[in-house]
Amino acid sequence: MIIKKRQSWVESENSVTDEGLFHNRRNFMKLSGAMLGASLLSPALMAEEKRFLQALSFNAHQTDLREELTDYKAATGYNNYYEFGTAKDDPAANVHSLIPKPWSVQVDGLTAKQGDISLEDLIDFNALEERIYRLRCVETWSMVIPWIGVPLASVIKKLDPTPAAKYVRFETLADKKQMSGISSRVLTWPYVEGLRLDEAMHPLAFIAVGMYGKELPNQNGAPLRLVVPWKYGFKSIKSIVRISLTDTEPMNSWQKSASNEYGFYSNVNSEVDHPRWSQSYERRIGEFSRRKTLMFNGYGDEVASLYDGMDLRKYF
Q1: Of the candidates 105, 111, 109, which has an alpha carbon nearest to the alpha carbon of residue 123?
Q2: Contact indicator for 282, 293 with CB cutoff of 8 Å
Q3: Residue pair 282/136 in contact by the 8 Å Cβ criterion
Q4: DSSP state of 289
């Protein structure tokens, strides 16, 4: 008999979702697929969507790491999304102009699959998973969020990378009509992020299309965003419109803006401070006291081997 041990970072589904709704997960997956893939919803589907989402219950509970979930209002009201403003409450106030459906992603570079791919063709909505991950921001604050989505590896495999592919480059929508912050010069637009291919294929790397049992809110990166929980939050790029497979390391937006402050890897590392503040401690949103920052955000047992032999002060 083979017994599969559940990873420490995977929360059992019925411990996250109310027991009465656990058996209706397939209905939720199908509903999410239709909801996210359609530009216009029929009255019947809208009513079903409202009924089901109202029934979902994500009460604060303890994860395997004995941490409570961040309050939903805090997680959706305190965000970094500079395309909608630089203040933490700007995104929630300004993202009403974002149109997250219909949506497609341009795929190019070293892949067999090329061109624009619709969201429903890119994401398998019949295989949605629910995972609780911490998201640690470089400004020393953090959240614990129940995400809904699929492993990034499943998306990359669909694209069929060539043997020459070594990196994955991601690009955010940059539309002045939808994004009021694009006129700002704080960054060069569009926003760009990247991962080494082995990082992207790691089972912890995740593409989220929802959170707290609901569609992904605009301010949190609708309709799809990256979640890389062992890295600082700016690596988890939002509202992705382009995925490119390359053989060279892509320059990410913050690295381009301030290379002395932001590197390509951006792994959570309490031993490497930001030039303007310490990274030794963090404050969980909703908490007054600070806590010690964990190496790789607490996921070291799973991801440390990706960086064997690397000087993490040099490759920060």
Answers
A1: 105
A2: yes
A3: yes
A4: S
Going from the C-alpha of 198 to that of each of 124, 165, 166, 175, the distances in angstroms are 21, 10, 8, 31
Q: Please give the single-letter amino acid code of residue 36.
A: L
Work out the number of other CB atoms within 10 angstroms of the CB of residue 28: 23
Strands 115-118 and 129-136: unpaired
Please tell me the distance from the alpha carbon of residue 2 to that of residue 86, in angstroms, as a whole number.
Answer: 51
Boundaries of every domain in the chain: 13-307
Hey, how many other C-beta atoms are within 10 angstroms of the C-beta on 45? 14
CATH architecture for residues 13-307: Alpha-Beta Complex (3.90)
Question: pTM for the whole thing?
Answer: 0.83
**pLDDT tens track for 99-144:** 999 999 999 999 999 999 999 999 999 999 999 999 999 888 999 9
φ, ψ dihedrals at 83, nearest 5°: -65, -15
Helix, strand, coil shares of the chain, percent, nearest 5, are 30, 25, 45
The residues facing 62 across adjacent strands are: 68
Q: Can you read off the two tokens belonging to residue 245?
A: 């497979």
User: What is the gyration radius of the CA atoms in the chain, in angstroms?
Assistant: 19
Q: Are 70 and 284 in contact (CB under 8 A)?
A: yes
Say how far apart CA 239 and CA 219 lie, in whole Å: 9
Distance (Å, whole) CA 264 – CA 273 = 15
Q: Give me the long-range contacts of 55-61 (CB less than 8 A, separation at least 24).
A: 55/18, 55/20, 55/21, 56/17, 56/18, 56/21, 56/28, 56/212, 56/213, 56/214, 57/17, 57/18, 57/21, 57/213, 58/16, 58/17, 58/146, 58/212, 58/213, 61/15, 61/16
Residues in the chain predicted with pLDDT less than 50, given as ranges, are: 1-6, 11-31, 33-42, 45-46, 48-64
295: its two tokens: 């190496």
**Residue 208: CB partners within 8 Å, gap ≥ 6?**
147, 148, 149, 216, 221, 224, 225, 226, 227
CA nearest to 80, candidates 236, 227, 210: 236
